[in-house]
Amino acid sequence: MGRGIMAALLAAFVAVLACAASPAHAQLSNLGAGQTGRALSVCVLRARPGDDPARLIRTPQRFDCTTKQTSFGPGDYWVISSPIGRRSPPHDPLVARVGSVWQQSLSLYVLYADGRLAAMHDDNRGITRRIQIGAIVEHQLPPHPAAVRRLMWKVGGSANLRGIVMGPRLATWAESQRSNLAMSAIYAGFGGLALALLVYNLALWASLRYRFQLAYCLMVAALLAYAFTSSGALAWAWPDIANNDRLRLNYLLLTLACSSALLFARAFFEEHVFGPRLRLLIRATVIILLATGLFFVLFAPVGVNVVDRVYSWVFAGVIVSVVATLWSAWRSRSNYLWVFAIAWALPILAASMRVFANLGLIRWNFWLDNSTILSMAAEALISSVAIAYRIRLLSRERDSAIAAEAVARRLADTDPLTGLLNRRAFLASAIGREGPQTLLILDLDHFKQVNDTLGHDGGDEVLRVVARTLRALAPPSTLVARIGGEEFAVVTSMSQPIDPNVVLTRLRATRMPFDLRVTASIGTATGALAAEAHWKSLYRAADTALFAAKSAGRDRARTAPLAA
User: Fold this and answer.
1) CA distance 40 to 164
2) Residue 20's pLDDT is what?
3) Model pTM?
4) What is the pLDDT of residues 65-93, one digit of tens each?
5) CA end-to-end span of the chain, whole Å?
6) Sequential DSSP letters for 45-105
7) What is 209-228 written as a DSSP string?
8) Has residue 410 been placed in a domain?
9) Comparing C-alpha atoms, which of 439, 445, 521 is closest to residue 481?
10) CATH number at residue 86
């Protein structure tokens, strides 16, 4: 019950977890600009035709410093920083770092204390060439003897989905390199982990062929691709791609990662968890997610704000599928609900915090934004452990089934009283043996008198003692069976013969219940056993020899002539 309650409490956030919660996560990969250097406060002014940058940067009082950036809506804007007062030396120049957002162009103006104004202009492809690891847009400020007084950005075609200029910071070139190195280590660590898990689980799938292993590999591959684009590594690998196109690809991979997470959950739980309606719901959710990703790629350039809103609502709707899945797993008492909840606990927490930040309930920061990569790593790793646990349970079920099958087969093939082969199993194993075989038929003498003296329980014990004696004398590969009430049969290769007189001597020496003396008569014959006809011929010969032994006075053995 506790496991179900825990999963139910977490369920409201699972969709946000699996999908990184909202498209903001795809856009703003590193608000706080790598958490390096000094944070800058900024003010905003809507751009108008004929604006003079040199005049605007020298009159910051015209800018709005109190209104939230998202309140301005989409458009063209000037964004000015607070006073700086630091030099940009040639050996370690200053850099301005901002988060990557949806925009058409970005220019940076640098005002020095001596009045000099430097400018850098980038279209959408130019922005890509300035991307650092963590999806940070970085401008290196031209070295100059005078101190930097202010910075001012001109943002053209800003969608202003989450802000105009996000997380502006001023750092040195050395700090920027250290940030790149640290972020590279984080993303490379996740990439190495994802690749290792991918290869390992693909290898497992090749041998075990469980469907949920392929679903897990698809999820890890999608997360790996998403991390490659959201980290900004794609911009380094493909510097000519427009930054907005990188973001569009990021949105698409985000829907693929979310869809694969749902498919993994669908394949991970037992089949009885999913009724017809739930299966239809998950299938429809996956199709809508993928269609929404394609919709964003195709129509974002036309109206990104509207498309982004549709995208957000679709992602919010994923909660229904996830909650329904966990609720059904709880009601059907799934063996995997608790391990699934543990695997997704950290991503759920991180994603829910990001939703709160997206709604403006808490303040956005660098570590919260980068919790996605850490939570994805934790989810991929712990989900691999969950897969190992599921395989362990499946292996135990398989082993139990094999053991039960072996027991059933043994019960079907053995005589329940003596534990020897029954007649059916004996014939199935004997007929078809290669080479000359010797058949011994042993029949207890006057066994009716034994039953009359000891009772049927005592007679049964005598049969068990005889069976143990035959097993003890039989060489390896010998077949020993009880083929009638007090009649036993032994088939052994002619190269490993059993002396029937040794059997009789051992029976005479074996202590029986109540020290009763029990004897037997044995008939033997040797011949081929390659076919059923051979068995009939060999049995007739051995049975004839047995009759001769009884006719001669019992407690003795007789051998039939060698059969063809």
Assistant:
1) 14
2) 38
3) 0.65
4) 999 998 899 999 999 999 999 999 999 99
5) 73
6) EE--TT--HHHHHT-GGGSBSSS-GGGG-SEEEEEEEPP--EEE-TTS-EEEEEE--S-SE
7) --HHHHHHHHHHHHHHHHHH
8) no
9) 439
10) 2.60.40.2380
